[in-house]
Amino acid sequence: MIMPVMPGAEDLIIILFLAYAYDLMLNEPPFAVHPVVWMGKLISRLKDAAPVKHRRLYGIFLALVTIGFASALAYAVMLVLSVESIPRVLRLLIAAYFLKATFAVRCLFEAGSNVRSRLEAGKLDEARREVSMYVSRDTSRLDENHVSSAIIETSSENYVDGILSPLMFYSFFGPFGLVAAYIFKATSTLDSMVGYKNEKYLKLGWFSAKTDDVFNWIPARISVIFICMAAVVVNLFSGNRKKLSASDALKLGLAEGLMTPSPNSGFPMASTAGALRVRLEKPNTYLLGERYKAYPVAEDIWLTSRLILTASFMAVGASALMIYFILG
Fold it and tell me: pLDDT tens for residues 57-71?
């Protein structure tokens, strides 16, 4: 095996900040050159070839092949970083491009903005159709409060698996951080494509779903701290708008984090409900923040976007510090 030259703390931190800046300033790359799309296509082909029997065993094979592909892709990028004939700036930009594919901040912000703008314009049907792109529930009969709740829930939930977890994997594993981030992203993509608890995917996606739960277990619980701290910062710049509650974000996140079917998603959602002091409800499934009387409205979507954006910046800063202390 060809061993790459291990990048130092400085390069890893530069790559991290470049990737974050790329995510905020630019749209997602075309599908043809998007690493996560490549993973998705591989999963789709393997999924279509799944046998009728031994589906749990095949599901393990599907997951391991996908994770192996993602690891090899990230390792190849590390080899590129070792090629001294390529200008250092270009090497760092290439690595940042591939790291950016493991997390998504701007997408969450834009999703919330799209739903909020339709609600504020009184276009409830359009808001229902828009939010249906991001959640698995039936949105055709949701009122404004539950449309707002749905987008707030998915934004806060995705703070963990779409931002915090990949950043933690990248920073914790030092020189092999990019490989670790890609292993996580492959697992997350597998969970989103085959990790459903229905007859078709219960066995096929069992391994992927369980692995995703394990990988997100620690970040989900840490997310309560980041959301709590972000609430303090957002309040400083919110002007005359509604203020967030950092103390309620912490209390509700810890108290109701396990009140959802997922062992992880409840923590960021409950923490966000506490910060907003509103109820977040998926009908017939869970209700977070029952102690509050109000359900969210369009303004709460705006606040959630800024809360998650601020928490993402904090996650990047914490990741940079972790890299510095591990390798510096």
Answer: 999 999 999 999 999
Sequence-ordered strand ranges (E) for the chain:
280-282, 286-288
Q: Which residue, chain included where needed, has tokens 């599908």?
A: 31
- Name the DSSP letter for residue 137: S
Rounded Cα distance, 147 and 206, in Å: 30
Whole-prediction pTM: 0.94
What is the pLDDT averaged over residues 210-221?
98
Q: Is 286 helix (H, G, I), strand (E, B) or coil?
A: strand
Q: What is the DSSP string of 151-211?
A: HHHHHHHHHIIIIIHHHHHHHHTGGGHHHHHHHHHHHHHHHHHH---STTTTTTTHHHHHH
User: Is 293 exposed, middle or buried, given 0-12, 13-18 or 19+ CB atoms closer than 10 A?
Assistant: exposed
Q: What is the mean pLDDT of residues 221-225?
A: 98
Q: How far apart are CA 12 and CA 327, in angstroms?
A: 10
Question: Is 191 within 8 Å of 235 (Cβ atoms)?
Answer: no
Instruction: Kindly report the number of other CB atoms within 10 A of residue 18's CB atom.
Output: 18
Phi and psi at 284, nearest 5°, equal 65, 15
Question: How far is it, in rounded angstroms, from Cα 175 to Cα 22?
Answer: 21
Q: Which residues pair with 280 in a beta bridge?
A: 288
Tokens of 223: 């997310």
